Amino acid sequence: MIAAGVTPLDHTILSGQYPKAKAPLVLGNEGVGIVEGGGTVEYPKGSRVMFTGPYGVLENGTLSELVAVQKEHLCLVPDNVDAAAAAGLPVAYLTAFLTLKAAGFQAGKSVLTPAIGGSVGNATTQLARALGAKHAISTTTSHAKAEQAKERGFSEVIDLSEEGLAEGVRRLTDGYGADIVVDAIGGQILSEALEILAPDGSLTTLGYAASRKTTIDVTDLIWKRASIKSFSLFHQPLSARSEAWKTIAELLSSRRVEPVVAKTFPLEDGANAIRYLIEGRPFGRVIVTI
């Protein structure tokens, strides 16, 4: 291993909220490493590869020097992507691509993904923009993060400290709304996001950083012929992952998407890396170097 991404899932497991994960267990659900041993034709010895899978959940994960990884979970790291960026992109970018595809994304659609500083929010916004979305909208509750987003070229970020979600989406889309919402926040944000769905729109819920519970107005679905669905990366077939990796790798190579890294920690400081992610809520990924 070279580096591992720190995710909210690590904290969920540590706090006992994911019953399928049993101690003793090495955490770390994603990462980047060098192929050891004989390698394969696709992944020769010495290749840099990135991956995610059951690691750090059902079997020992990436916060270690060596990890046994299924070949089907690997993707070659483009030469122009450094190890820290590669370590923190598998979960977020696979999730973003596959949720957009399942929602029927096409060029010209309007997409909303709350939390521009978060992993899924940032990845989905970047992918939607790179793949031709008419609008690739995100949010932040922090004025400082809103400024960071502007500096990084994200021009459609709603500063929730200054305006409401519905007001911001309608302003950016001239009242149209969002064809697709990908929500990893939950709670009140999910309820508000349903309100601004366009006719025949789709909301995918896949996280609960704010809360596991929310209240919805069913007319936001019924009158718009809209839908709400869930997503879990663990249950996606390998064929779908392989297809997603091809597109993601091409976009990384052409620099049409660029993962954002907030801070790196050495392996011996892994506990503080998780603490920084959960308590500091940084703009970008938190990475542990091995």
Number of helices: 10
The low-confidence runs, each spanning 5 or more residues with pLDDT under 50, are none
Beta-strand share of residues: 15-25%
Round the Cα radius of gyration to an integer and report it.
19 Å
H/E order of the elements? EHEEEHHEHEHEHEHEHEHEHE
Termini separation? 6 Å
Give the overall form: globular
Average pLDDT reading: 95
Class by alpha and beta content: alpha/beta
Q: How many DSSP E strands?
A: 12
Strand order, largest beta sheet: 4-3-2-1-12-11
**Main sheet record:** 6 strands, mixed
Fraction of residues in H or I helices: 25-40%
How would you briefly describe this protein structure?
The protein has 290 residues and is of the alpha/beta class.
Describe the protein's architecture and organization.
The protein is α/β, with parallel strands linked by helices and 290 residues long. The N and C termini lie close together (6 Å). Helix 3 crosses helix 4 (119-130). Helix 5 links the parallel strand 6 (135-140) and strand 7. The protein contains 10 helices and 12 strands. The chain is globular. The mean pLDDT is 95. It has helices at 8-14, 83-87, 90-102, 119-130, 143-151, 165-172, 187-195, 219-222, 238-253, 270-280; strands spanning 3-6, 30-34, 48-52, 74-76, 110-112, 135-140, 157-159, 178-183, 197-205, 227-230, 261-266, 285-289.
